[in-house]
Specification:
This protein is of the alpha/beta class. It has one domain (4-125, 155-162). Helix content is 25%, strand content 22%. It has 4 helices and 5 strands. It has helices at residues 51-70, 108-121, 135-139, 150-153, and strands at residues 4-16, 21-33, 81-82, 101-105, 159-162. Strands 3-2-1-4-5 form a 5-stranded mixed beta sheet, covered by helices on one side. The longest helix has 20 residues, at 51-70. The radius of gyration is 18 Å and the shape is globular.
Length: 171
C-alpha cells in the first residue's frame, strides 16, 4: 500500500443562497491519491510507475489545477454548479513550495506518481518565478538578461519522501 498525500492550506468555506450557483471561498484542498498503474509487484523487487500510471497521475494533476488554481472546472452534474473554485492566495503560475505539502512513500511508483501529478499542477511556464524563490530578481543577471528554468520553465516541486517506519508517515 503506497500513497501520495498533497495538502494545500487550511480550511474550506462554502457560502451560497437558495439559487442554483454555489460560490465557494476555498482556503485549502487535500488530495489523498493511492497511486497510478505500476508494474506487477510479483515480478520485481521494485515495481515502477508505467507510462499509463504517469498519464493517470498527470490527468489528476490537470483536473486539480483546473479546479483549484484556474477555477475553470465548472460542474453541472447536479442541480448546482461551481461558480469559482480557486484557492485563496495560492500562487497559480509559479510553484511556491511554502504553500504546498507533498508527502509520499519511498516506492518508486508513488514518488514518480507524485512528480507526474505536480508536473500537471504546475506545468513548465517561461518567466514564471515564485516570489518565495527570489522572484524575478533571482532570474536577472547583472547584465540585465533574464534566465529561465530549463525545459521551457520547468518548475521544481518539493516532495517529501517518508519510509513506512517514519513517525510522520502518511500511514
Amino acid at each position: 500500500m503506497s500513497t501520495l498525500a498533497l495538502v494545500i492550506g487550511l480550511a474550506v468555506l462554502v457560502s451560497g443562497s437558495s439559487a442554483q450557483v454555489v460560490v465557494e471561498d476555498i482556503w485549502s484542498a487535500v488530495a489523498y491519491i493511492y497511486h497510478g498503474e505500476h508494474t506487477p509487484s510479483e515480478d520485481s523487487d521494485s515495481p515502477s510507475l508505467t507510462p499509463l500510471g504517469a498519464q493517470q497521475m498527470y490527468a489528476q494533476g490537470t483536473r486539480f489545477r483546473a479546479r483549484y488554481l484556474e477555477g475553470s472546472d465548472v460542474t453541472s452534474d447536479r442541480d448546482e454548479s461551481t461558480a469559482t473554485g480557486i484557492i485563496e492566495g495560492i500562487a497559480a503560475m509559479a510553484i511556491d513550495n511554502t504553500q504546498l505539502s507533498v508527502t509520499t512513500t519511498g516506492d518508486q511508483y508513488t514518488s514518480a506518481g507524485a512528480l507526474s501529478f505536480l508536473q500537471a499542477l504546475y506545468p513548465p511556464i517561461t518567466e514564471a518565478f515564485s516570489r518565495n524563490a527570489g522572484g524575478l530578481e533571482a532570474a536577472m543577471l547583472a547584465n540585465g538578461s533574464l534566465i529561465n528554468y530549463p525545459l521551457g520553465g520547468y518548475q521544481y516541486p518539493d516532495i517529501r519522501v517518508l519510509s513506512v517506519l517514519d513517525p510522520n508517515s502518511i500511514w
